[in-house]
Specification:
The protein has two domains: about 160 residues, Rossmann fold (3-Layer(aba) Sandwich), CATH 3.40.50.300; about 70 residues, no CATH class. The C terminus is likely disordered. With about 270 residues, the chain is α/β, with parallel strands linked by helices. It contains eight helices and ten strands. Helices cover about 35% and strands about 25% of the residues. α6 links the parallel β7 and β8. The strands form two sheets. It has a six-stranded mixed sheet, with helices on both faces. InterPro entries: AAA+_ATPase, ABC_transp_ATP-bind, ABC_transporter-like_ATP-bd, ABC_transporter-like_CS, Nickel_NikE, P-loop_NTPase. GO terms for molecular function: ABC-type nickel transporter activity; ATP binding; ATP hydrolysis activity; nickel cation binding.
Length: about 270
């Protein structure tokens, strides 16, 4: 049994309309199916607006889809009781793109990382501080950093704190929603190395949502492409991705700029 199974999920949002017009909806996901095995990282690629983040929220149990199922450890997240959903939520964590908006600016690193521990564990203050100190060191920070506020960290350091919070309960699956896209290249590489190390150490599974092909290649075992709310391609062997003739892959590759400006080709603006 797969750790995560998304079965024929469809979702839409109400489009803006005038009060006298009939209510219209914009389809964001259409019949999406995918699965993730224990210890696997699935890289979910797609351009902006493809539906990647919406799918992430549906998997996290934050937005109920109009159609389909999300099975986590064999249980439908949207067809179970509250206590079971809370138990499953322990094993399903997330790291979002914006490391700053993901935390309360008035809370210390100790309080931020301690939130899931307080929700699910019964630890003494001394024991919780010991665990938080170990988590900070695990993600490349110092245990003394637990007393600092978010404003005292760089973006890369704060994202490491978000990762420490995500792994605090030793979950089975972490949704990484553009988790490195706002970081500079050096910090991004360091965080990807950290994620790979944690995956190996704890046997974690990841859904790595991104538009960045290089980042996806650096961490993913398998790749999938989401295009206009549909899974356009799934590559069990990620080396097949670059040679794919799939139109969605070609569009995604075409949207990537060369690293050096001299080699970038920009289309001319249309004349007015």
């Amino acid at each position: 049994m797969s750790l995560l199974q998304v079965k024929d999920v469809s979702h839409s949002y109400a489009a803006s309309h005038l009060f006298w017009q009939a209510k219209r909806r914009t389809t964001v996901l259409s019949g999406v199916s995918l699965s993730i095995e224990q210890g696997e990282c699935l890289g979910l690629l797609g351009t902006s607006g493809a539906g990647k983040s919406t799918l992430g929220r549906v998997i996290l149990g934050l937005e109920k889809p109009q159609k389909g199922q999300v099975l986590f450890q064999g249980i439908d997240l949207y067809d179970t009781d509250t206590s079971t959903r809370k138990r499953l939520r322990r094993d399903l964590q997330v790291v979002f793109q914006d490391c700053y908006s993901s935390v309360n600016p008035r809370m210390t690193a100790e309080q931020i990382i301690g939130e899931p521990l307080q929700n699910y564990e019964s630890l003494s203050l001394k024991e919780q501080q010991r665990v938080i100190g170990e988590l900070l060191e695990r993600v490349g920070l110092r245990s003394e950093d637990m007393h600092k506020l978010p404003s005292q960290f760089s973006g890369g350091q704060l994202q490491r704190i978000n990762i420490a919070r995500a792994i605090a309960l030793k979950p089975k699956l972490i949704i990484l929603d553009e988790a490195v896209s706002s970081l500079d290249m050096v910090t991004q590489a360091n965080v990807l190395n950290l994620l790979n190390e944690l995956k190996s150490t704890f046997g974690l599974s990841y859904l790595f949502i991104t538009h960045d092909i290089k980042a996806a290649y650096a961490i993913s075992d398998t790749l999938a492409v989401l295009d206009n709310g549909e899974v356009a391609l799934r590559c069990e062997d990620k080396t097949q991705f670059l040679s794919s003739t799939n139109p969605s892959v070609k569009r995604l590759l075409g949207s990537v700029l060369s690293e050096h400006p001299r080699h970038r080709k920009l289309s001319k603006a249309p004349r007015s």
